[in-house]
Design brief:
- It contains six helices and five strands; from the N terminus they run βαβααβαβααβ.
- With about 140 residues, the protein is an alpha/beta fold.
- It has a single domain, classed as Rossmann fold, CATH 3.40.50.
- It has a five-stranded parallel β-sheet with strand order 3-2-1-4-5, with helices on both faces.
- It is globular, with a radius of gyration of 15 Å.
């Protein structure tokens, strides 16, 4: 079925993986595939905002995220499932699309909040952006 599944997680929001992670694990187990788990540390979005943070902020944030992702995998992914951690820094939807290409996955699993019309109109959602641009199937799990 799916030999390579990419799961996106927000390490600061359990809702991003609480329901999606078990589904991704089951898909991978049933096909004896590989699970790639990606967490993206979002960038500042503006050079003005960036100026308020220490110069080594990105490096330290990535190190912390890597440790947290490894802990999540150790605690929540069965040892029988091959799980590969991935950490990125930048715009979330762009990094997910790049990870699709890099991992060669054939399915993306990601959580999404219940749609909020005003928020969607103003800023959109990362899940929506990925669904519209992904070259592979995307399973959106509602939190």
């Amino acid at each position: 079925m799916f030999k390579s599944v990419l799961l996106t997680v927000d390490l600061n929001a359990e809702a991003s993986w609480a329901k999606a992670l078990p589904q991704a694990v089951e898909l991978v187990k049933s096909s004896k595939g590989e699970l790639h788990i990606l967490s993206v540390v979002p960038d500042f979005g503006s050079p003005v905002v960036e100026g308020f943070f220490p110069d080594d902020f990105e490096e330290k944030a990535l190190e912390k995220a890597e440790l947290e992702l490894e802990k999540l995998i150790a605690d929540r992914v069965p040892k029988t499932v091959k799980a590969v951690p991935h950490i990125a820094y930048g715009k979330i939807h762009k990094k997910v699309l790049k990870a699709i290409e890099h991992t060669g996955c054939d399915l993306v699993v990601m959580a999404s909040h219940k749609p909020d019309r005003v928020r969607e109109f103003l800023v959109g959602s990362n899940a929506d952006r990925v669904v519209r641009r992904s070259p592979v199937s995307v399973l959106v799990v509602r939190g």
